[in-house]
């Protein structure tokens, strides 16, 4: 069994966010990374830093999608039942549902729902792709504040050196 208090504490600590929304929506500190390593570092740091915003935006978009395509509620309910079945291993009518039984039944029901509600699945996958691309784009382009300031300072130094060199060549 899962301890309810411990689970609530874990969720609260996971969703806690110290980052102000101003920093999340600040488009002045965006840039395209020059190397794969820089892109990887930005994605990892921004996922941790902005996870509350990413989860919130995804939840809002999925809620709006559910309003447009109500059949999606069946898939959400199925996912919730699968998670519940794997966490608690319920017993119904004297039959204990192990995680193996829950996962197999979830797979079978998902296949039946996919055949029945094919357009909902395609639209949900398109929405999931849209959300994933949006989150990855944001995570890879937003720079950290200290790196932005150091980048601006180095740009100013390069500009000053260029101006000095330009004046020096004019005097020759």
UniProtKB/TrEMBL annotation:
Stated name of the protein: PRA1 family protein
Source organism superkingdom: Eukaryota
Keywords: Membrane, Transmembrane, Transmembrane helix
Transmembrane stretches, start-end: 53-85, 97-115, 121-142
UniProt xrefs under InterPro entries: Prenylated_rab_accept_PRA1
Record's keyword annotation contains S-adenosyl-L-methionine: no
A Pfam family per the record: PRA1
